[in-house]
Design goal:
This protein is mainly alpha-helical. The protein has one domain. The chain is 81% helix and 0% strand. It contains 21 helices and no strands. The protein is globular. The N and C termini lie far apart (50 Å).
């Protein structure tokens, strides 16, 4: 066996063994990279060089700002206002509160960009509310956790910024635009699933639709929704870079949360910043260690070997696209979202582009695959949060979520094979 093949074997086997042993992902990535460097005979000083290089990126500065914006808006009294707006839009339908949950996630996702924040914030309000109105608690939890994945697709999503960096300079503005229609399609498919179950179980309807009530709630929620407009129009229109727009959005979120909605005090702001630092430290350590891991993969030509292995199974682009989806879904069962994006993008993006998938479309495919991974055991972070909020065993939540997995997989297949769903808005705006 050559040094290259030995190094690849050591890198991949040690990484997956540590994942199965439930090592923290950053440690698994770093230690497997160290073992690989030792096998290759490289000095360990290169580890530090690649870690520093991995986080020395101007576009990466947008990530802490987007995280801070999301936490500020999420704790600043925004949730209740967005729920009221969603209720005014779709509460009149059969299974009205399930529809409200899904639409509120679309609105809230555009502010927080985080499935975990969405589940914790909206779930703590909506799951008890739905239970009081006669909805089964496991159904309410399943709707909450699956609809939270809309927040990963609807901009501004810090995961899209991480993907843009990993993909080597894909336009963040184009990625933001590309997420709107897939996010809406996911919401629609979940609403269809909820409607069928609600009809079968005879769940209640809400109040009749009132245009006056809708306008009233829209006016109240205007300040929250304007944050999204600032970010997306600023980035897409070329007024700001992603980093500048994220910084402006943080200042705007602070003003709205403290002075307009008054959902948070100045003392509370410091708690928010403390939470942001905790989240950010995890993300940055992952990015730094993944930079070393990614460099090892590139140097050992693993992307080329993976491409040859996949194209060796079939040359049919549809089969290859399904295989790429399957790989990402399996990775989602054992890894969190950010490391999948950082590690899998350099390997799978060249394969996707070779069969005609645009890097922007692939970004949306990857984000949705990772979103489904957040809901699958054994490492589904959002699944655990949903179970904790609802105080239900994970097995019951997974069972209730099965019909919604089908809705999400249908959406994934449509996004994979119909490029126009992702690419329509980027093409119209550029």
């Amino acid at each position: 066996m050559t040094v290259n093949m030995t190094a690849i074997a050591v890198l991949m086997i040690s990484f997956f063994v540590m994942i199965l042993l439930r090592f923290p992902i950053a440690y698994a990535v770093a230690l497997s990279s160290v073992l690989c460097l030792l096998v290759e005979g490289n000095p360990l000083s290169t580890l530090c060089q690649f870690m520093v290089k991995g986080i020395s990126s101007f576009s990466l500065m947008a990530v802490p700002f987007f995280i801070t914006m999301g936490v500020l808006m999420g704790t600043g009294g925004i949730s209740e206002k967005l729920i009221a707006l969603a209720d005014a839009c779709v509460g009149w339908m059969t299974g009205g509160m399930a529809m409200v949950n899904i639409v509120a996630s679309y609105f809230f996702g555009g502010i927080s960009g985080s499935a975990a924040a969405d589940t914790a914030s909206l779930g703590s309000i909506l799951i008890p509310m739905m239970s009081e109105q006669g909805y089964d608690t496991d159904f309410s939890t399943a709707v909450t956790i699956t609809s939270s994945c809309e927040g990963l697709l609807v901009p501004p999503s810090h995961n899209m910024v991480i993907y843009a960096m990993s993909a080597g300079g894909v336009s963040i503005g184009a990625l933001f635009l590309a997420g709107y229609i897939p996010g809406a399609l996911l919401a629609f498919s979940l609403m269809v699933g909820s409607y069928i179950i609600s009809k079968k179980r005879k769940y209640p309807k809400g109040e009749k639709f009132s245009f006056i009530r809708f306008i009233k709630q829209l006016a109240i929620s205007f300040w929250a929704l304007a944050a999204i407009v600032i970010v997306v129009i600023g980035v897409v229109g070329g007024v700001f870079t992603a980093t500048e727009s994220a910084a402006i959005a943080v200042i705007y979120s602070l003003i709205v949360s403290v002075f307009i909605y008054k959902g948070i005090t100045w003392k509370g702001v410091w708690k928010v910043l403390d939470e942001c630092v905790n989240t950010l430290s995890i993300v940055l350590i992952l990015i730094a260690t993944s930079a070393v891991f990614g460099n090892c993969l590139t140097r050992l030509h693993v992307p080329d070997l993976a491409a040859k292995a996949i194209t060796g199974i079939s040359t049919n682009p549809y089969v290859i696209a399904l295989l790429v989806d399957l790989i990402l879904l399996v990775l989602g069962c054992i890894m969190d979202m950010a490391p999948i994006i950082l590690i899998a993008t350099p390997i799978l993006l060249p394969i996707a582009t070779s069969i005609g998938i645009d890097p922007i479309q692939f970004g949306i495919i990857m984000v949705l695959n990772c979103g489904i991974g957040l809901l699958t055991p054994p490492v589904g972070a959002v699944l655990f949060i949903g179970s904790a909020v609802a105080k239900l065993p994970m097995e019951r939540v997974v069972k209730a979520t099965l019909p919604f997995y089908v809705c999400m997989l249908i959406t994934l297949v449509l996004i994979t094979f119909i490029p126009g769903i992702s690419m329509l808005l980027p093409h119209l705006m550029h």
